[in-house]
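Board work, copied verbatim: histidine kinase
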Amino acid sequence: MIISSILVIAQEPWVKLDLKHRLIRLGYDVAIASCLSALRERVWQVQPELVMLDARIAASVQPGLVEAIGAEMNLPIVIFGVQGLRLADPVLERWNRVYLANPWETEALRAAIATALSHHQTQTHAKQTQTTLQETLHQEIAHRRRQTQFMRSVDHELRTPLSTLLVTFDWIEELEQEDYSSRSLQKLTCLDRARSSVRRMGQLLDYSSLLCQSRSGDISFRPVALNLLVFCRVLIDELRELDHEITIRFSANDVFETQTLVLDPTLLRHILSNLLSNAIKYSSKGEIRFELQYDSGAIAFRIQDQGIGIPQSELAELFTPFYRGSNVGTIGGTGLGLAIADQLVRAYQGTIIVNSEVNVGSTFTVTIPCKFQK
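↓ predict structure ↓
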């Protein structure tokens, strides 16, 4: 950083004049002042880029005032004429100040100015970076809050008509069931399709709302005492009810037989049901392995399938909302399940790792911290 002007503040006239001439010989424009109280006025008049302050003036004012003025005026300050510095340290940077023992030595004077400028530049850059990061963070938080508010509005506006449709479908179905004609059976088939479509729309609303909540930090934890073995087995049974042809092999450490954990069942259900549902959806054959392990204060849920797999080049995008693999073909999906699982695992301060090979299968490992009930 190159500067052109310096303001010298000293009480003794000969000190000011001598130092002024030395600095002029070094190529600087120099202004002088006799007291610290004149700093603001002189800064406004001459617009210096560095201040050199006599140590006796610095010692006579309230502690911290020099740094406060320097920060307020955004100016680096060199305090010169300091007694007690070792000769090996003609220039010393300490406590956010630059000290110069002997301003009459040209090289020491150069070094003091360079040190003060470097320190000031580093501090200024750090403050600018911090300000930029804070502004970016506030903008991101505000953006996510707007997203969440929008999704809540959309959710509210769509839930009622969707619920009305389902009730209407049920009413029509009751009427048509009294008629055993082929035309009536066709109507019932159409009703089933319409009902399934409405339910998929409802599920999409659920996923979108949950994703916005997790990304905006609105997810609330409600941990309770939980028998994890029972919880997982119930979840597996529910999935089997949806597809009787699937085979899920479940295994767990012995520790879960005797210990009760403290976990949030709602978040855990979202995470595991998304991963298990994907394993079922993308596995047309073969069994699914669901393993539960405990180690060093954390639980690892490992779900392995023998499905279509994921191309290696696409793994980095796997948890991006609405992203779907290039090899899914006609298999239905929203592209939100894994994004939601990833966000919820992060909210749980856990990790999710995937290993996959095309036409061989995928393994998802979710690790979350936990504690046993006392």
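The longest strand covers residues 361-369.
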